[in-house]
Specification:
Layout (H helix, E strand, L loop, with lengths): L1 E4 L4 H13 L4 E5 L19 E5 L5 H11 L3 E4 L6 H6 L2 H24 L2 H6 L1 E7 L24 H20 L3 E6 L1 E3 L8 H11 L3 E4 L5 E6 H14 L5 E4 L4 E3 H15 L11 E4 L14 H7 L7 H14 L1 H7 L2 H11 L3
Parallel strand pairs: 1-2, 1-4, 2-3, 4-5, 5-6, 6-10, 7-9, 8-12
Antiparallel strand pairs: 9-11
Length: 352
């Protein structure tokens, strides 16, 4: 048995689906079901006897500990987090609560459980913390990519809260001996991503004939990682990663945001042509967000060298699969675009 926190979110749900497709080992999914948590993502496994869901807030240490003691997992994979930079700018408190206080409560519950295990169980146990490349700050155009030894320089409330949780995980390994692993990934994309993030937002707006808002000059660069590749990397780190170590996971696909948007438009024009003309006409440059990091890039040589992992998808193949998935799942998109989400989109972009 493994426990996954935040398993109803974008990456977490993809990980659970991938895990159950590759393994007979059961999964307990702990999720508070905030706006971006969606059990519909896991409809394919909801009746699978290997899968169980419990709605819970990871900040509730005692309740989480009771579930961990009941399940007796051999590993915990910690995805649960608030993860959108723009939302963290507008309301940082929830990011501090979930990403810092929630991770602390989960670590405390895990430490209590781990201390009660047999020596063999303690030796086999792993706590894998899923984090982000944004903790490293921003790169210049000619700077070397982020490595596992790059100094932390978070520039948003989101990245600062994730940096704090990374430090807590490290401290629990060095202070208490908890067998932890940390992964820092680049920008994910793929099925089930909530349509506030760049790629699904562009797909949804382009299909609706709405403006495609691009921050600043559109030349902010990100390394793009297909979510399926990320799930494979996490499984590999959980299997063979060295305790106390960090592994950077990247897609080796650096691209300016405006090129991502143009590529999405081109794919949509190919797969579902618009009688009004090419969708690139909808691109609208808007005022940049505060503290917008200029460039991220991941040096993934450590995970490649130690664990033999490399991404299977290029940006071209991964994005084509992603656009096709959204075209084939318009009902899912319509259902997640609730009134609350629309209110947030209006608040974030109306003044830009």
């Amino acid at each position: 048995m493994i426990i996954v926190t935040g398993g109803a979110g974008f990456i977490g749900s993809n990980f659970i689906l991938d895990w159950l497709a590759q393994s007979a080992e059961p999964v307990l999914n702990l999720d508070r079901l905030t706006y971006a948590g969606n059990l519909e993502n896991l409809a394919a496994v909801e009746r699978d006897p290997r899968y169980r869901f419990e709605r819970i807030d990871i900040c509730e240490r005692d309740a989480v500990l009771a579930l961990i003691r009941q399940a007796r997992p051999r590993a915990i994979v910690h995805f649960a987090a608030e993860s959108h930079v723009d939302r963290s700018i507008m309301g940082p408190g929830e990011f501090v609560r979930t990403n810092i206080e929630g991770s602390f409560a989960l670590l405390e519950a895990t430490r209590a459980y781990w201390g009660e295990c047999t020596p063999a169980e303690r030796e086999a146990f792993r706590f894998l913390h899923v984090s982000t490349d944004e903790v490293y700050g921003s790169l210049g155009p000619n700077d070397a990519a982020f490595s596992e030894t790059t100094a932390y320089q978070p520039n948003s409330p989101y990245s600062a809260s994730k940096a704090a949780s990374d430090h807590l995980v490290r401290a629990y390994h060095h202070t208490y001996g908890l067998p932890t692993l940390t992964t820092n990934c680049s920008n994910n994309y793929g099925p089930f991503q909530f349509p506030e993030k760049l790629i699904p937002l562009m797909i949804a707006n382009a299909l609706a004939g709405k403006p495609l808002p691009v921050y600043g000059d559109g030349l902010n660069v990100r390394d793009w990682l297909y979510v399926g590749d990320h799930c494979t990397a996490i499984r590999r780190v959980l299997q063979a990663g060295r305790c106390g170590e960090t592994y950077n996971i990247g897609g080796d696909n650096e691209m300016p945001n405006i090129e991502v948007v143009r590529t999405v438009c081109a794919l949509l024009d190919e797969m579902r042509p618009d009688p009004q003309g090419p969708r690139e006409r909808l691109v609208t440059y808007v005022r940049d967000r505060p503290g917008h990091d200029r460039r991220y890039a991941i040096d993934a040589r450590k995970i490649a060298g130690e664990l033999g992992w490399r991404p299977a998808e290029t940006f071209t193949t991964g994005l084509r699969q992603t656009v096709r998935w959204y075209l084939d799942h318009q009902g899912w998109v319509d259902r997640v675009q609730s009134g609350q989400y629309k209110d947030w989109i209006a608040a974030n972009y109306s003044a830009r």
